[in-house]
Structure formats: structure tokens, C-alpha cells
Specification:
The protein is mostly helical. The chain is about 70% helix and about 5% strand. Strands 1-2 form a two-stranded antiparallel ribbon. Strand 1 and strand 2 form a beta hairpin. It comes from Bacillus glycinifermentans. This is Protein liaI.
Length: about 130
């Protein structure tokens, strides 16, 4: 892989996204978000049976999700940073031809014109 400016910036975005995701080491927002989602689900499901109980479940569910909102926003931002960083690293390694990226181009082996290959092929032809 070629180390270009895009690949370096992509690597830094990935590192920043990972540090944002694991920042503080707290997963309480995930648990609160899951509880809030479950309460919202049951509140919507019980809407036809009893409106009072479903309204209480919906209010508590929204409160849980509101408390978990900073964590959920942080997870979304970190996922976006990791995605864009990865795509920049992948684009940074591609060769450009006429301003466009070419996926069909294959890396060519380094060629050194020392004349040894031609002499070796002549030697093999003489031997047969």
C-alpha cells in the first residue's frame, strides 16, 4: 500500500473515531438506550390495550433515550469517522490514471534492464 496524504489522514480519522468510541470507557449509554428502546416498543405495542399504561411507558422510554442521547451521538460520529477514514485509506492506495481511479490496473514488478535475462534466455535456447 502506498503511503499518501489521503491514507495518513484516513488513519488519523480511524484513530480519532476509535478513541471517541472508547472515550471514558463507559457503556452505560448503550444500556440506557437499549432499555429506552424496549420501553418505547412495548409502549407502542400496548397503545390499543390501555392508553394510560402505554403513555407512561412511552414517557419513560423517551426519558431513557434522552439520557443516552450523548452516547448515541458519540457512537454515530465515531462510526462515521471510522467509515470515512477507511474509505480514504482505500482510495489513497489506488493508482490514478487521467484523474480517475482505475481498479483494473495491476501493480507491475520492478524491471531492471541489466541484460542478464536476455543472456539467460539465449543460454537456455542454445542448451536445447
Amino acid at each position: 500500500m502506498n503511503i499518501t496524504g489521503k491514507s495518513v489522514i484516513g488513519f488519523l480519522l480511524i484513530l480519532f473515531g476509535i478513541s471517541l468510541f472508547f472515550g471514558g470507557g463507559q457503556i452505560g449509554g448503550l444500556i440506557a438506550g437499549a432499555i429506552g428502546a424496549v420501553l418505547l416498543f412495548y409502549g407502542i405495542k400496548k397503545w390499543n390495550d390501555g392508553r394510560f399504561a402505554s403513555v407512561i411507558l412511552l414517557i419513560i422510554g423517551f426519558m431513557f433515550l434522552g439520557g443516552a442521547l450523548p452516547f448515541l451521538i458519540g457512537v454515530a460520529v465515531s462510526a462515521a469517522l471510522i467509515y470515512f477514514g477507511w474509505s480514504m485509506m482505500k482510495q489513497g492506495g489506488k493508482k490514478e490514471e487521467n484523474g480517475f481511479y482505475s481498479e483494473s490496473s495491476k501493480p507491475s514488478a520492478a524491471s531492471y534492464d541489466t541484460g542478464f535475462d536476455a543472456e539467460w534466455e539465449d543460454f537456455l535456447k542454445k542448451k536445447q
